[in-house]
Design a protein that fits this description.
6-stranded mixed β-sheet; single chain; 8-stranded mixed β-sheet
Length: 373
């Protein structure tokens, strides 16, 4: 409920009736000193809607109003939009940054009736002391739906799901279609990635709701496949209207598994005791043990853990390519900065995602520098 208070009056709007109730004004205590300043409520002016007139399909409307307060400032502004199809909708309005103007937006639904419909606007401002004022402004009108010899209205197309695995699957297509004569047919046109089209009939599930199922085929390509969907409704004299329902995407087929297998030797690496300031190096060999028919393996070797590093590595590690029977030697360096035990990990990550967890554990012991060094 939006409430207005000004000069000792409170007003409520209830079911379209404006009620006015007298509220006693607060009096200063007897014998008080200088008269206190009157805390006046905010002022609301210039309530407008843009646009104020919409076609039968409805659309987005922005409400504007000027709100000001001399007693400390405006804390909240909101609009109540009341229409013919249900209860009021409350729209919170934000300061536009220009003058004293506030604005807020909402979507007005389509008008499927044969008469123009109108929405009223009531804007309320509340100051920081809780005083409030309301003001009415220009309303919003929505044109009547085209009648008889006009085309059908197709609205709110919805496809779920819009993303499918490479194996394909079913997506449900739903749409609202209305006409003052009668809807004779509703169907979806599916355009595949190769440009071919097919039609899917949509059956009525209510007087204005229609639904059907599109079954996407398996995608064997290395890239995703997309299917564009448009929904068309025809009336009983053959007039049609079409709406875009978006895309259904079928994921790319997964790459075939690479039979090549990597081995890492040694499986773990322990450095001998090293003094702080010195360094130790050791080699680790990554080998492709697949036969001639196995594929080439590409990947990256990286190291983690304080005191350990890969010789010649860049920020991302060391990239490698090993064909069947070939190997790659990786040099690991241990350079401790203080005495103690160290632990690290060298990971081998294949680009094809195979053999997850392939790694070598690293360890080392550091002792203090020799005196005098």
């Amino acid at each position: 409920m939006l409430q207005s208070t000004m000069n000792g009056l409170k007003r409520w709007r209830l079911a379209g009736v404006l009620l006015t109730v007298l509220v006693p004004l607060a009096l200063s205590p007897a014998g008080a000193g200088a008269q206190e300043a009157i805390d006046t409520p905010p002022v609301v002016t210039n309530v407008t809607a843009s646009p104020s007139s919409l076609p039968a399909e409805g659309g987005l409307v922005t409400i504007f109003a000027d709100a000001s307060d001399e007693g400390g400032g405006v804390s909240d502004v909101q609009a109540q939009i009341t229409g013919p199809f249900g209860g009021p909708e409350i729209v919170l309005m934000a300061f536009t940054g220009v003058g004293q103007t506030y604005s807020g937006s909402l979507t007005i639904p389509a008008n499927f009736t044969d008469s123009q419909v109108n929405y009223s606007i009531l804007v309320q401002a509340i100051d920081i002391n809780g005083n409030s004022t309301s003001a009415e402004g220009g309303g919003i009108s929505v044109d009547a739906a085209p009648q008889f010899d006009e085309r059908p209205i197709v609205a709110d197309p919805l496809v779920t799901p819009t993303s499918l695995p490479s194996g394909g699957g079913a997506s449900t297509i739903r749409v609202t279609a209305t006409d003052d004569r009668a809807i004779s047919e509703v169907y979806a046109t599916i355009t595949g990635p190769d440009g071919s089209t097919t039609n899917v009939p949509l059956g009525g599930i209510s007087s204005s709701q229609f639904e059907g199922t599109f079954t996407a085929p398996v995608n064997t390509a290395a890239t995703a496949a997309q299917y564009a969907i448009e929904v068309t409704a025809l009336d009983d004299i053959g007039q049609s209207a079409t709406a875009d329902a978006g895309l259904v995407t079928v994921a790319a087929a997964p790459p075939p598994p690479n039979p090549a297998k990597l081995t890492v030797n040694p499986g773990q690496l322990s450095f001998q005791t090293i003094r702080v300031g010195d360094r130790g190096r050791a080699s680790i060999v990554v080998r492709n043990t697949g036969g001639k028919s196995a594929g080439t393996v590409r990947g990256v070797v990286a190291v983690s853990g304080a005191g350990f590093a890969l010789v010649g590595a860049g920020p991302a590690g060391i990239a490698f390519t090993v064909r069947p029977g070939e190997s790659k030697t990786i040099k690991v360096e241990f350079r401790p900065t203080k005495p103690g035990r160290y632990a690290g990990l060298m990971t081998v990550r294949r680009n094809d995602g195979a053999q997850p967890g392939l790694a070598v554990r690293l360890s080392g012991q550091a002792i203090p520098k020799k005196r005098g060094r």
